[in-house]
């Protein structure tokens, strides 16, 4: 049975695993490795240490289905809506730009529930704290090394992490990327920002008329969400939770600072925007070094399937489209801004 490794347990990796399980013409052994301690990637959901039911989405806040996406993959939204994993976003988000035909959805159980759903559907062997460091070619197989433990061999490896992290990998993989492909991959750039999650005691009131707000006049804060309100959850037993996303300039300026120092500055700015905000019982600060993909330069656009206007999460559909059997051995295929390597003479 072919052994397939998907590196990254974010949206792309989890959906790729679920689609491979469903569509592979022959049974495959699927493994998903992630360097983090849980699934979600940039769709992660953090829990209060005092009440696991109090959660914040630290990365993606809501999912926008444009008319273009609806045309191409409505069934994915329909499945998630039927299962209650997604629900229409009805709470007011001030400053949100809506285009005609757009529908926004939120995840009542936290945005990472989407990823957990796909991983479960895939039946993959999911391993956390597996940080891939090297990929080498050994006897017609890909030998994948991680920070700790012995290397393992696979027939196919799909890399779903942000492009700069792909380019940091050592071993034969570095030489298999042609100069042209490397230049194209190097031109994919990302914004950086911080997210600060705040958890409050049950019964705390945060008295604002919105569930989320885009801020345009603060050098540090770009977006605030009362996360339980965004998901229409108001309970006397679960404390409210709030998440703040910083501006990109703040993220870039403080990229190499200690997270605790950035947290203090974000907190001060939040108090200036929402005076009288009670002290939280717990906080969680996340530095997103690779936050959202920025627009690409001309040369890269041609190499990357889809449009430069696509949100990065849609790139996963390219995996579905392109992840078909291929006939060349040791081939490398860029998939969206991700890359798949196959050491067999068939994809699966
Ligand atoms: C602050 C923020 C707000 C956003 N808001 C929205 C939004 O509202 N709506 C929306 O649709 N999108 C939003 N996005 C974008 C969205 O979150 C991403 O497009 C999507 O989650 C990307 O998923 P992915 O699986 O491609 O990558 P990731 O989620 O980054 O997954 C890659 C995974 O690879 C792992 N990894 C990296 N290197 C290694 C290694 N060497 N070995 C093993 N594992 C490794 C990482 O731990 C990670 O889990 C937002 C993103 C951020 C950061």
TrEMBL record:
<keyword id="KW-0274">FAD</keyword>
<dbReference type="InterPro" id="IPR036188">
    <property type="entry name" value="FAD/NAD-bd_sf"/>
</dbReference>
<dbReference type="GO" id="GO:0016651">
    <property type="term" value="F:oxidoreductase activity, acting on NAD(P)H"/>
</dbReference>
<dbReference type="Pfam" id="PF13450">
    <property type="entry name" value="NAD_binding_8"/>
</dbReference>
<dbReference type="InterPro" id="IPR040174">
    <property type="entry name" value="RNLS"/>
</dbReference>
<protein>
    <submittedName>
        <fullName>Renalase isoform X2</fullName>
    </submittedName>
</protein>
<keyword id="KW-0285">Flavoprotein</keyword>
<dbReference type="InterPro" id="IPR002937">
    <property type="entry name" value="Amino_oxidase"/>
</dbReference>
<feature type="compositionally biased region" description="Polar residues">
    <location>
        <begin position="339"/>
        <end position="348"/>
    </location>
</feature>
<dbReference type="GO" id="GO:0005576">
    <property type="term" value="C:extracellular region"/>
</dbReference>
<feature type="region of interest" description="Disordered">
    <location>
        <begin position="326"/>
        <end position="348"/>
    </location>
</feature>
<feature type="signal peptide">
    <location>
        <begin position="1"/>
        <end position="17"/>
    </location>
</feature>
<feature type="domain" description="Amine oxidase">
    <location>
        <begin position="97"/>
        <end position="289"/>
    </location>
</feature>
<keyword id="KW-0732">Signal</keyword>
<dbReference type="Pfam" id="PF01593">
    <property type="entry name" value="Amino_oxidase"/>
</dbReference>
